[in-house]
Amino acid sequence: MRAAVVSQYHYPLNGRATSFAVNTSTSRRRSGAFTVRMGLKEDGPSLAIVGVTGAVGQEFLQVLSDRDFPYRNIRMLASKRSAGKKLTFEDKDYVIEELTEDSFNGIDIALFSAGGSISKKFGPIAVDSGSIVVDNSSAFRMDERVPLVIPEVNPDAMAHIKLGSGKGALISNPNCSTIICLMAATPLHHHAKVIRMVVSTYQAASGAGAAAMEELELQTREVLEGKRPTCNIFKQQYAFNLFSHNAPILSNGYNEEEMKMVKETRKIWNDPNVKVTATCIRVPVMRAHAESINLQFEKPLDEDTARDILKRAAGVVIVDDRASNHFPTPLEVSNKDDVAVGRIRQDLSQDGNYGLDIFVCGDQVRKGAALNAVQIAEMLL
Amino acid sequence: MRAAVVSQYHYPLNGRATSFAVNTSTSRRRSGAFTVRMGLKEDGPSLAIVGVTGAVGQEFLQVLSDRDFPYRNIRMLASKRSAGKKLTFEDKDYVIEELTEDSFNGIDIALFSAGGSISKKFGPIAVDSGSIVVDNSSAFRMDERVPLVIPEVNPDAMAHIKLGSGKGALISNPNCSTIICLMAATPLHHHAKVIRMVVSTYQAASGAGAAAMEELELQTREVLEGKRPTCNIFKQQYAFNLFSHNAPILSNGYNEEEMKMVKETRKIWNDPNVKVTATCIRVPVMRAHAESINLQFEKPLDEDTARDILKRAAGVVIVDDRASNHFPTPLEVSNKDDVAVGRIRQDLSQDGNYGLDIFVCGDQVRKGAALNAVQIAEMLL
Fold first, then answer.
1. Domains of chain B (ranges, CATH numbers)
2. Which of A13, A292, A345 has the CB atom closest to B254's CB atom?
3. ipTM of the assembly?
4. Pick from A126, A288, B27, B51: CA 20 to 30 A from residue A170's CA?
5. Which residues of B touch A218 (CB under 8 A)?
């Protein structure tokens, strides 16, 4: 965990404590002991990072390092534009290579985060080369043959995929909003069965990439100086404003981001009947999403039981201090692994104990993307 | 309307185009003609503004001027601290007076916005003096004897209160979030009867007063400079962050802001059975609230009919352009009278046409407070 590096008061504007050269940090091993980690191991898998220069690509490296992920070697892949640039990772120098059809020879695990069209083109090529692809794009998420996995939620979905079998495979990383929502909702679902879920999101700039985070910062400076804000990534002012998620609107009036939450939840829970509606909104926050979630259960579930269930849930931390009005915030979960849950309360608008309202925050770049993908890769080891 | 003054691109940081001296602007009369207005009229009522130096107090003046509200004279009232200061309004100079027990002699209509304790103490004194009090605080909202009024929604609730009867009276202005929500929900409710409503809010700094807006600006500058943000009004970083509304949490786990929405909706709709749940969140936006509203109806209501109903609704404007992804934003409704509604769509999570999702934005200082109060006063004329 990098928590100590990023204080909530001394806010690093790009939301990153490090970039490229991540070789000096220490991290908490899963055992709890602090060490200088170094994942370079002769018997580790051979890795490729596709889109290594992007916000999530960078976070892949950070998370691999933080978690002491073992690897024999790493191929750093990006577009032609970045090819040839140098990068230091865990005391070793790398040259970024252009992604080509030959990039996956000898690669055991490829972590993709370079957009849907890159995944569509190069994912199958990597699989044909015998690589197991963990894909952060939406390209294959709804493909029935591709598992859509949150390791804490549905690890069994990828149980048939084995490293070292010589057979390539695709595994999809769910959308960030879905991951953060289901990290909190699933433990409750297992106990009382969610039959309907109404979600409103408060989504950070990072979901639209590093350039969007930079634009939010630039716009904020401009607005404070009374200047017209630069609108390259978004078509409207983002600073001191919010707007409906910029994903295209479908014929049913939902945007693609919202439909991801609807469809991915059904697939991950393997429950085609679960009813989900979502309203996805972008707020001027850098790198962590918040979600207001209203849950309707088949079986009764009181709020104390819900709190106990969430207390025991892996990857979830409860921040629910009513007396001091302290609940999850995007800033407090930034650069953290766990999804924070608070405002846990019985829903007044449902009779009996069949409803709960909760408020959830999770780091979009980390658990919403890079961490979840690396956790998937860990399950292959 | 002051729309032309405040461009969405050249954002005035305090969200105000004018302050104190509002005598040079022009406005659209309700007739649609443009004139330089001047509400000073011998046969108009005698007004008092309680809390004239606050964000809402200032907006009272702006709205009175914009709407050409007739008045014989205005008493500008505030705390001892502001007493003696001068203020120019519609070409006339005023001296701010300290609010005392004698402030309401000869006052026909008193607009209060100085907090609950001031209203509790001085509201009844004003009523005893024969004034009709329009109170923006929560002090009397749930008092059965006091009408809680949104003029477009439940004007009949105050039909028994008459100006010039010599009898004082109290009328409460609902909470800003309730007003903005019900402006959109009520026309639909009248058509298909809302039985349950799930609301998540995105609330602006202005709801916590002018000092909170200043703190958000100050914090943002500080964070951009890498400094620790000043936390006087809020106990945590607000810039590039969001948090659960700072209102106290009650024993049921809801905060007071959320319970206002639950209880005030029941009272305004005169429907003790309507089921409402709300999650109220503060976002780093200056002066307009947004709300994601999920509606469940007793009778079917398709989205086209809903759009037609909202198109005809007074005080509501539809901003729902799916093709260009243009929907309501806080910035676009800032300093506007109308509540903007968009993202109107059939709720996928409800069978048949019994559910809708909508996204609503309204100026918190204007329709959420000052405008609604002045509209109440207009109904007395």
1. 3-173+368-380 (3.40.50.720), 177-364 (3.30.360.10)
2. A345
3. 0.91
4. A288
5. none
